[in-house]
Write a structure and sequence with these properties.
184 residues, alpha/beta, Rossmann fold, 7 helices, 39% helix
């Protein structure tokens, strides 16, 4: 699917206006509901196509990935669909370790030293994705890249850069023609 058409479709299916409290604690006049775009087969297929192309371009440039990883819950469907497309296994990175059963921090098999591509849905400040990156690094995995569907361009790219990584968005709020007005 052509990227411009995918962007229009993503907005049609998942763009909401109003007064929203974001995970970052900030308020926004718009919201991209990841569950609306990740549960729509046409949009999900397009997103996976775009992310797989980006991932393959990085691999062609020399990046090596042993596995994908996604923070729970929002990015899990993206990682699962992308895993099928690029034939890489994936991990689910829990927000907190389970306090029962296996007490896992990660769901899925992994080994120390593996090279990871983190997959995220929408990035605002980068808090959720950086929490996942930290957990992966603490377990001895090497995070190579961070991909996302939309960078809201509200500090996430800079926060990810401070962690020594580059945020690789399929779209930015600017490329979609949306964004929050400057703070008052």
């Amino acid at each position: 699917m052509e990227r411009e058409h995918l962007g229009e479709l993503l907005l049609e299916k998942a763009y909401l206006e109003g007064d929203f409290l974001l995970r970052s604690g900030r308020r926004s006049r718009y919201y991209l509901d990841k569950y609306l775009f990740e549960t729509d087969p046409e949009v999900l297929r397009g997103i996976v196509g775009g992310l797989s192309q980006m991932l393959r371009e990085r691999q062609a440039a020399g990046a090596i990935y042993d596995r994908l990883a996604a923070p729970e819950l929002g990015a899990v469907s993206l990682a699962a669909a992308l895993s099928l497309e690029v034939e890489l296994p994936f991990l689910i990175v829990r927000k907190q370790s389970k306090d029962y059963g296996t007490e896992n921090t990660f769901e899925g098999r992994w080994r120390e030293g593996e090279k990871i591509a983190v997959i995220e849905d929408v990035v605002t400040s980068g808090g959720a994705v950086l929490q996942a990156v930290d957990r992966l690094r603490q377990a001895g995995m090497e995070v190579v890249d961070v991909f996302c569907v939309v960078d809201r361009e509200e500090g996430g790219r800079e926060a990810v850069a401070e962690a020594g990584l580059e945020l690789r968005p399929l779209f930015t709020s600017g490329s979609l023609g949306i964004g929050s007005p400057p703070p008052e």
